Amino acid sequence: MGNVESSCYENHLSRFLPEEKKDIDGVFDTFSGSDESGEVKIGKATRKAVTLAALKAHVQEALPEQMTLRLYNGMKSVDLTGKSPGSSEQIIKEQFIVFMSALLKGNVEEKSSIIMRMISSTEGPVKGKQIQEFTEDLITSVVHVLRYRNLLKGWNLEMTQDPACGVKALASQLLSELKLEDGKKLVGSPLMDAMCDQSTVENWVFQVPQISTFLSVIIRQGLLVLHSLPDQANDLVKLVPKCKGIKGRGFVSLLDIPSIIYINSHLPSELQHKWRLLFSSRVHGESFSQLCGQIINQGPCILVLKDLDGYIFGGFASDSWEVKPQFQGDNRCFLFSVSPSLMVYMYTGYNDHYMYLNHGQQTIPNGLGMGGQHDYFGLWIDSNYGKGHSRAKPTCTTYNSPQLSANENFTLDAMEVWAVGDLPESAVIKGKKSILDTDPEAQALLEMTGKSRQSDGLREQIEDDDDN
């Protein structure tokens, strides 16, 4: 290489620690040694090189074939000379290192340059439809490689919904941030036909950090390079939470893996490492007293509802639920929709009506609500379990969310609640006794519903962390 391209390469190489360089060298040697044609002549020298066949042989079934091809096109597009990429079908080590550096440690401009060629191997602008296909391939590949490498942390495709719908929903959500230079968003048919240059893609990658995160997971876990180093472990902790509390229940969640990843990304970082099932109407029964008995004093949690029309939606409660006539929670709470569209709605600052749980009152509503105001909640489950509403015209004042259910007044088909993060200390203490022994409000709630102390048999022990 000449001085200019050598300097550029050395700059990329310098981003890696010694142990990372050693790992990359080993992986490239494995690539290039798995194919007899893994050599290329540069000038008078013969260099090790990687072919598409060699890359496929190394990846095997860890990634879908289409994503392996996209990675190959990205590597091949790396220009070490300052001229347009050559026609060589083989990738030399310097290209591999620059590819790794750009996508794992580079700035948004460096990433976008390679992503453009992963979207389309042809030089120049790309179509919106091609970006959509790339995004769906990216999400599909993340789910695929996490499953293949046994990194779903207790989740599996049998106890969650079909990820195919979730892939399209998450892709649509990520693509909603794609804008032309004039700031116009591309949605629907205009997206399919739009021509997007590198600056458009660059802005999109900057606005949507999930693209970089997903590429990192695919490269590290798909190619098994830099996959065992601490920063990758942290990425995976934040990406997919551990799933707890489902052991031996034959439980099937209302969520799919892509929606779990997306919702988890909006939680406070200290809560992203673990979800623990507290309540499922299909496991615990359709009872408001059961719901309250399972979720009170369990720390922050996620509620997921499905109405009879198939709409799936819910909310994140930042504090432990308490039975009381006042609103509770803080500005970390949010509402979300999963189906027919995937979206998170954060607080607006208009009011502090984050969370509400009450029962047995004569003059104020009895039930569980989030956002809005009495009788006009963004999300409401009546104490007469099975009925609820989402009244938002035009939007919920607390979260700026639209109507989340198919109809303003809805009937529940199913509901589940997940505690997120570690158990609060108070829950651990009370878990050794009964919450009914230590929380008079919870005891009174069950007595009001006619359960009294007979409900002791309905309550469950807090699950040990070692269990699934």
Shape: elongated
Report the sheet with the most strands, covering strand number, pairing sense and barrel closure: 12 strands, mixed
Count of helix runs? 18
* Uncertain spans: 449-459, 464-468
Amount of beta strand:
15-25%
Question: How large, in whole angstroms, is the Cα Rg?
Answer: 26 Å
Span from first to last CA? 54 Å
What structural category characterises the helix and strand content? Answer: alpha+beta
Q: What portion of residues is helical?
A: 40-55%
Mean pLDDT: 86
Query: How many β-strand runs?
Result: 17
Can you summarize this structure?
This protein is of the alpha+beta class and 468 residues long.
Description:
The protein is an alpha+beta fold and about 475 residues long. Helix content is about 40%, strand content about 20%. The chain contains 18 helices and 17 strands. It has helices spanning about 5-15, 20-35, 50-60, 65-75, 95-105, 110-120, 130-150, 165-175, 190-195, 200-205, 210-225, 230-240, 255-265, 280-285, 290-295, 425-430, 435-440, 440-450, and strands at about 40, 45-50, 90, 125, 195, 240-245, 275-280, 300-305, 310-315, 325-330, 335-340, 345, 355-360, 365-375, 375-380, 385-390, 410-420. The strands form three sheets. Strands 6, 7, 8, 9, 10, 11, 12, 13, 14, 15, 16 and 17 form a twelve-stranded mixed β-sheet that branches. A three-stranded antiparallel β-sheet has the order 1-2-3. A hairpin with an 8-residue loop joins strand 13 and strand 14. Helix 11 packs across helix 12. The N and C termini lie far apart (about 55 Å).
